[in-house]
Design goal:
seven-stranded mixed β-sheet, binds dihydroflavine-adenine dinucleotide
């Protein structure tokens, strides 16, 4: 630890990208400290012991980006499949395509629409507020898509996600509810999409496969901090409030509980992700991992599913989605100001900057951070 040119806290996509660049381009000696017993952060994938099916321990991770620099970068470390994500949602006794598209609308209203007819109907149903400014999330959603679609597809799901009545949630959570007025049922509309052929853990392993990179799993930065050479720059991708010992307050996150079940059928739901829109069902969605890799020869006898339950995170829970209340944002602004003047430390990643980042955004931001860190590393030994 003492001889490292740079110390990286956290081995998610953000930390791994910076580590790879520092080692491969600068020849710097990199030490990564990871609190968990594995690499790859929240994107970690592993084979389920009972079924042999590869699962995503921290929830479904789909790679998609329109950034060709990021796409070319990840493709250096893994081949990607041509998986194209599609999501369905169950409402009462029917299953619809999500995000809402022309197929969803025709099925829901029981009529054939042209794109223009569907647009006109949604516009008419969105007029309920009569031009008044929406004051909560329910009103905002109604002003965007109208009450029938809101009540079927948004109300119950949102209430479960936030464990709060949408009338008590701020309107700014939704800026835009996507309705596609065509039959495109792909979940993402990015230029590039796919899954790493051997999973995310193997991809990150390849990124870190360099003689100058040493990874210590099961090590918390705060336990070994004293051993780090004073002049070695640190890239910190852990929670920013913890770094400053919660002195400005703690930041609010939502977490997700996963309930795993092995089911003795070849196929449980016919697709990888099924949302449950109704409030009477306690979970928000069910993931069935075998569908991520339809070409793999998994055993037809069993399948593994995760039911997802959403709730706000306590101190000992995994922080997943930032809540970003006005209070949270004010607290974060204070940490951010302190982070700016913290000598020798760069804060990055979703936990270090208190924002939701997709994997491609984390990698893109890490490539930028590397450019900044590069200057610090070249001067650290002087
Ligand atoms: P990440 O959390 O991966 O890594 C940070 C690491 O730091 C962790 O491993 C943590 O243990 C470690 N750490 C923290 N404190 C430490 C300390 N004191 N000492 C040592 N180590 C410490 N993205 C996407 O593109 N497509 C998708 O489908 C999804 N799906 C998705 C589902 C769910 C449920 C979530 C929560 C997130 C997603 N994501 C996603 C987002 C994706 O997980 C995210 O982009 C990456 O995790 C960001 O990488 P980071 O390296 O910033 O954080």
């Amino acid at each position: 630890l003492n001889s490292a040119d740079v110390v990286i806290v956290g081995c998610g996509f953000y930390g791994a990208t910076v580590a790879e660049r520092c080692a491969a381009e600068l020849g710097a000696k990199v030490v990564i400290l990871e609190r968990r017993d594995h690499i790859a952060g929240n994107a970690y994938t592993e084979d389920d012991q009972e079924t042999g099916i590869e699962v995503h321990r921290y929830g479904a991770h789909l790679f998609h980006t329109s950034n060709s620099e990021v796409w070319n970068y990840v493709n250096r470390f893994a081949k990607f499949t041509n998986y194209s994500h599609r999501v369905f949602t169950r409402h009462q006794d029917n299953i619809y395509s999500m995000p809402m598209n022309l197929a969803t609308l025709c099925q829901f209203f029981g009529r054939a629409f042209t794109p223009e007819e569907a647009k006109a109907l949604v516009a008419e149903q969105s007029r309920e507020l009569g031009g008044r400014r929406p004051v909560n999330l329910e009103e905002k959603a109604i002003s965007l898509i109208g009450r029938p679609l809101y009540e079927a597809f948004i109300r119950g799901y949102t209430a479960k996600q936030w464990q709060t009545d949408p009338r008590d949630l701020p309107e700014h959570i939704f800026t835009r509810l996507p309705v596609r007025y065509n039959f495109d049922s792909r979940y993402f509309s990015d230029k590039f999409e796919g899954l790493p052929e051997n999973g995310y853990t193997a991809l990150v392993e390849n990124m870190l496969d360099h003689e100058n990179i040493q990874v210590y799993c099961g090590v918390d930065f705060f336990d070994v901090r004293k051993l780090i050479r004073k002049s070695a720059p640190i890239l910190y991708t852990g929670p920013i409030d913890r770094y400053f010992e919660y002195s400005e307050g703690s930041l609010g996150w939502r977490t997700v509980d996963f309930e795993k079940e092995v089911v003795n059928v070849p196929d449980f739901q016919g697709t990888s992700v099924m949302n449950y829109a109704d409030e009477s069902v306690p979970y928000t969605r069910i993931l069935e991992f075998r569908h991520f890799y339809p070409d793999r020869s998994y055993s037809p006898e069993k399948t593994v599913i995760f039911r997802e339950y959403s709730r706000s995170a306590g101190m000992s829970d995994e922080p997943y989605y930032p809540i970003n209340t006005a209070k949270d944002d004010a607290v974060y602004a204070r940490y951010k100001a302190r982070a700016k003047i913290e000598e020798g430390v760069i804060f990055g990643g979703r936990l270090g900057t208190y924002r939701y980042l997709d994997m491609h955004q984390a990698i893109g931001a890490a490539l930028k951070a590397y450019d900044k860190l590069k200057l610090m590393i070249s001067t650290s030994g002087e």
